[in-house]
Write a structure and sequence with these properties.
CATH architecture of the largest domain: 3-Layer(aba) Sandwich
Radius of gyration: 35 Å
Number of domains: 3
Helix content: 25-40%
Number of helices: 18
Shape: elongated
Distance between the termini: 106 Å
CATH superfamily of the largest domain: DD-peptidase/beta-lactamase superfamily
CATH class of the largest domain: Alpha Beta
Structural class: alpha+beta
Length: 566
């Protein structure tokens, strides 16, 4: 009896052990299955889904989506206008010729050509159209037609084209400007496909047929936020086109160095770059960041050094309209009328008297100190926007020259000879005077942001340092006001909008077109007078007189900006 009891207990223990092992095996298998399902559906679901589709889908890529390029208020420069795509499905329309004829008639297409092409293809045909035709076709409600509503990356009203750049139409990769420099941030691999779903023998799968698929990107959408202001940029470009300006305009926030508008004209169609590759008008060339002879704008630098050398320049100088330095004669623009007569420093600056400044600089200013001050103001330097995706020239100063003749010094004093600057550098020189002598780091890109506008990566660098004593800057501001009150910029009238200050410039280039010398026109100024907000540089290629060529452009831009309160 004892033996039987022990045997029964052993059997029970053996059965419990087997049951436990069996349960353990099933549990491990179940956990493994759950992990595998999680891996397939969650971790690698998107990749496997794409792979599965690729095995049984013949597709046409409609578009690769990109992040937006935004202004400082997150108003988009890209993807602003609607685009309408008509998708024709051959397998349906081959059997409905009257429907196909009607569609071709609405879209203005060759029916026979479309019909012929449908005989040899399964893939859908995608045609872009306007909203009116899209609505007509949509109302037909044909089974063989689908509509895709999308957005144009660029259109006829696109702004800041030289800054935004453009993408390669073949692979959708950024080719120039912000599109190129921030291509990795703007690319997030999302795409829209129009596909026909087939089996392994290329037969349409019942119930599947044609599909419009939006494949999500592997990365989250990111946008590039600029310092530009969309509304001010629009004003600048509208005014330039109104005045038929060939040149550039730059508007800078004088208090922080942000570029709020920058435009070069003529510009180009971002959707048709090939058209401009051999153009003599150089539409693809960004004049806002190119080096040009500076002319009398350089007299702002003269003033900065002259007022550092001595406070009082009240003694008068008699301008006869020309001055001889060595064996060279230098003239004022009114030399044929006998010059400006007696002028002091303020009057000479207001009237842009060449002979006054040549005489003062040649006789009383150390040329190397003058050039060093020009360098401190940013000439012969990158502004820094090249680090943010915009190629730029440095301008030029003859800093390394061991010997300067009196003729060299005379040329430099009026911004001629080897002195060159870019419109963006000129806007910054004026901004530095307007804010009281602080040179701020120039920015054109603020940050990388997500779809909710939250900053993902900061780009903007906020930094400033003093290059000029505030008292001297204030004196120069007063003299720039005189330019508009009674000087070469007196055609500008902005008193009811808060006033303005400026400096005109005419820069001889030594070049000739049709026997006439090429003279570039400049106007650089700031507004309003009290608590200046923006500096503006207007450059007019071969504009000759800066006051008459650039002054009205400056005036209208300032007027519109102040009227709108931007």
């Amino acid at each position: 009896m004892v033996y039987i009891v022990f045997s029964m207990k052993g059997a029970i223990l053996l059965n419990n052990k087997r049951a436990f092992l069996l349960l353990l095996v099933f549990t491990i298998a179940f956990v493994g299955l759950v992990i595998r399902l999680f891996d397939i559906q969650i971790v690698n679901g998107e990749r496997l889904s794409k792979a599965a589709y690729a095995q049984r889908i013949n597709s046409i890529e409609i578009e690769k989506l990109r992040g937006d390029i935004l202004d400082r208020n997150e108003i988009p420069f890209t993807n602003r206008s609607k685009k309408f795509l008509i998708v024709l499905k051959p397998l349906f329309l081959q059997e409905h010729e009257e429907q196909l004829k009607k569609i071709c008639s609405i879209l203005g297409m060759d029916y026979e050509k479309i019909k012929s092409s449908m005989r040899s293809m399964l893939e859908p045909i995608v045609i872009e159209t306007d909203e009116h035709r899209k609505n007509i076709i949509m109302n037909l409600n044909y089974e063989g037609v689908s509509i895709i509503n999308s957005l144009h990356r660029y259109d006829d009203n696109s702004l800041a084209k030289h800054i935004i750049g453009y993408i390669n139409s073949v692979d959708g990769v950024g080719s120039t400007g912000i599109e190129k420099f921030y291509n990795n941030a703007l690319t997030y691999d999302a795409e829209t496909l129009v596909a026909v779903v087939t089996d392994g023998r290329n037969n349409i799968l019942p119930g599947m047929g044609y599909r419009i698929m939006k494949i999500p990107g592997t990365n989250k959408k990111l946008n590039v936020k600029l310092t530009l202001d969309y509304h001010i940029q629009k004003i600048v470009e509208d005014v330039m086109e109104k005045h038929d300006i060939k040149g550039a305009v730059v508007v800078e926030d004088v208090n922080n160095g942000d570029i709020v508008a920058i435009a070069s004209k003529p510009d180009f169609d971002q959707n048709n770059i090939a058209k401009y590759l051999n153009s003599t008008e150089q539409e693809l060339f960004n004049r806002a960041v190119a080096s040009y002879d500076l002319g009398s704008i350089f007299k702002i630098i003269d003033l900065a050094v002259m007022l550092e050398v001595k406070d009082n320049w009240d003694e008068e100088y008699f301008c006869t309209g020309s001055i001889k330095i060595g064996d060279r004669e230098f003239k004022c623009y009114n030399h044929e009328e006998g010059g400006h007569g007696y002028v002091n420093l303020e009057k000479a600056f207001a009237l842009s008297c060449n002979t006054y400044f040549i005489n003062a600089v040649v006789n009383e200013i150390d040329i190397r100190k003058l050039l060093q001050k020009a360098h401190e103001f940013g000439l012969d330097n990158n502004t820094g926007i090249n680090e943010q995706g915009i190629d730029e020239a440095k301008g030029n100063l003859p800093l390394d020259k061991k010997f300067f003749s009196y003729g060299d010094i005379a040329n430099i004093s009026i911004g001629q000879g080897e002195i060159m600057a870019t419109p963006i550098q000129v806007a910054d020189i004026v901004a530095t005077i307007a804010n009281g002598g602080i040179k701020n780091k120039i920015n054109i890109v603020d940050s990388i942001v997500n779809e909710n506008g939250n900053k993902v990566r900061g780009i903007k660098v906020e930094r400033g340092y003093r290059v000029l004593d505030k008292k001297i800057a204030d004196k120069i501001k007063r003299m720039m006001e005189n330019v508009i009150d009674y000087g070469t910029g007196r055609m500008i009238s902005l008193e009811k909008y808060g006033g303005a200050a400026g400096k005109t410039g005419s820069a001889e280039t030594g070049q000739y077109v049709n026997g006439q010398s090429v003279v570039h026109g400049w106007f650089a100024g700031y507004f309003p007078r009290v608590n200046p907000k923006y500096s503006v540089a207007v450059f007019v290629e071969n504009g000759r007189a800066g006051g008459t060529a650039g002054g009205p452009v400056f005036e209208e831009i300032a007027k519109r900006v102040m009227e709108k309160g931007y």
